[in-house]
Amino acid sequence: MKRWLFLELVGTWMLSYSVAMLFTNQELEIKGSIIYGLMFVFGILAIIIGFMMAQRRLLQAIAEYSASSNNSHLNIKNLLYDKSMLDRNLKVVAIGDGEGLSAVLKSLKVFSNNITAIVSVIGKSNSRDMNSSIDVTGIKKAMIALSECEEETRDFLNYRNMDSELFGKNAGNLMLHSLSNLHNGNLSEAIHHMSKLLAMNGKVIPATLNQMDIGAILNDGTRVVGKEELVQKISERKSPIEKLFIVPERCEPAPDVIRSIKEADVIIIGPGSLYMGILPILLIREISDAIKKSEATKIYISNIMTEPHQTDNFAVSDYIHVIGEHIGKGLFDYCIVSDSDIMPEYIRRYNQNGSDIVDIDKHILKNTNLNLIIEDLTALDDKNYIHHDPKKLANVIVKVICDNMELKDNQSTLEYYTVKSKMKRLSKKKKKSILFKDVKVVVSPNKKKKEKKR
User: Fold this and answer.
1) Domain range for residue 49?
2) At residue 136, does pLDDT exceed 90?
3) Residue-wise pLDDT tens digits, 89-105
4) Terminal CA-CA length for the chain
5) Is 80 among the domain residues?
6) Does residue 50 carry a pLDDT above 90?
7) What average pLDDT score do residues 240-260 get?
8) Dist. CA 358–CA 319, nearest whole Å
9) 119 and 21 part of one domain
10) Which of 81, 248, 420, 431 has the fewest beta carbons under 10 Å from its own?
11) Beta strands, E only, 371-429
């Protein structure tokens, strides 16, 4: 800050001195006139640059102050300011399912409250808690990820009553069912009001309120309808999915889905189950059309591990190719991929269940129009399952967002520095895991076979 104020002072002196010499000294030679003329020009430039940089540094300092959680002088006004900045920050739409979507939502809520999670609700629920045929498991996971107190919310929503009248019934499902009944069976309204009760940082929307299911044509020509039957058939026949479709073919998006996509600054798709979570949402024509027309930055986050019988031997380009075949090519601007050194025992555990590491085929991806970002984004949870690290993922997403921000005014500049400051503070707290340090990835037999074929 001081250097820019000093530059302004120097510029003011140069401007004043050159003006005084040019207008008061009538005996100046050509050489002197040129020198003072240059001083005049440089003086103006110094004042302009000093003012702009001082203003920018002031905005950065304000953002850093608002982002600092360790500030002992932080009062209610600061907290309200920080909350209002999050509320006004970039609008982000996330599409996916399961733990992959949860990791993305956890990373997004660090720098924005304007988050909309569009969740798949295909297939019939196996729950005894609701009469609805819609499976709300994905909705609950997204709500937990966006809540302020994740652990408490998870315990509550997954709690099963042991009383005689409500024995074995899930508290989260009962709550959604009750709220849905209060709003004439409207699940979208039920989720909206439940989000308020849980004080979530963002909102969760089901992709559709229609009773939607999926079907597929397998590689051997078999046609299967129904999620449960499809999972069973591909497991029995060992035949991959050739083409996926939704039933009914025309499903209407839930209220606010299209509006959220149109207003979004960033649209993130994945990670998650390709055939059971992501594609069923994108196959709703209005949703895929809205994404194609949107001017938002579109990011695809690749899975770390393949899914048994569904994406066997898949590389990153295979995921993008399948989405392109079903929805249309050229959907994404960026592709984020995790490349981490993982201990052999963790990979073998997945291999035993038929899963493997998703191959990063750079030579194919480089021939696309995608901006490929490869980073170490892998972490292990308490049960030693591999997943995306929300903090690491947040850093990468923020970098993409900030690189695409147009700083048109002071408000945009302040938002930029707020996002950057929060991520800078977050990265300082990040501890390096020894689980992935100096350990080479073990290439499974499946990978070796695939490489030989190539």
Assistant:
1) 2-67
2) no
3) 678 999 988 888 998 99
4) 57
5) no
6) no
7) 92
8) 10
9) no
10) 431
11) 371-375, 378-380, 386-388
Rounded Cα distance between 214 and 205, Å, is: 19
Provide the 8-state DSSP code for 424: H
Q: Is the pLDDT of residue 130 over 50?
A: no
Residue 74: inside a domain, yes or no?
no
Does 377 lie in the same domain as 289? yes
In the three-class reduction of DSSP (H, G, I as helix; E, B as strand; rest coil), residue 176 is classed as helix
Both tokens assigned to 108: 């997004």
Q: Tell me: pLDDT of 274 over 90.
A: yes
Q: How confident is the model at residue 35 (pLDDT cuts 50, 70, 90)?
A: confident
Any idea which residue has 């031997």 for tokens?
313
Residues 136 and 173 in one domain: yes
DSSP of 125-144 = ---SS-SSSS--HHHHHHHH
Rg (CA), the chain: 27
13-39 burial code (b ≥16 CB/10 A, e <16)? ebbeebeebeeeeeeeeeeeeeebeeb
Residues 50 and 92 in one domain: no
Which residues, 6+ apart, have CB-to-CB distance to 292 below 8 Å? 328, 331
Question: How far apart are the C-alpha atoms of 224 and 262, rounded to whole Å?
Answer: 34
Same domain as 368, residue 243:
yes
pLDDT at 433: 42
H-helix or E-strand spanning residue 16: helix 2-24
pLDDT of residue 320: 95
3-state secondary structure of 30: helix
* Residue-wise pLDDT tens digits, 415-425: 555 566 655 65
Q: Which of 140, 202, 141, 143 is nearest to 173 (CA)?
A: 140
List the structure tokens of 336: 């984020």
Q: Could you give the number of structural domains in the chain?
A: 2
pLDDT bin (cut points 50, 70, 90) of residue 325 is very high
Shared domain check, 129 and 18: no
Cis preceding-peptide flag for 248 (omega within 30 of 0) = yes
What is the β-pairing status of strands 334-338 and 297-301?
A: parallel
Q: Contact at 8 Å (CB) between 320 and 368?
A: yes
Please state the rounded mean pLDDT for residues 150-162: 73
CA 155 to chain centroid: 24
Distances (CA, A) of 418 to 196, 411, 429: 25, 10, 17
CATH number of the domain where residue 308 is located:
3.40.50.10680
Contacts of residue 311, defined as CB under 8 A and 6 or more positions apart, other chains included, come to: 274, 275, 303, 318, 319, 358
Tell me if 366 sits within 8 A of 329, measured CB to CB.
Answer: no
> What pTM was estimated for this model as a whole?
0.70
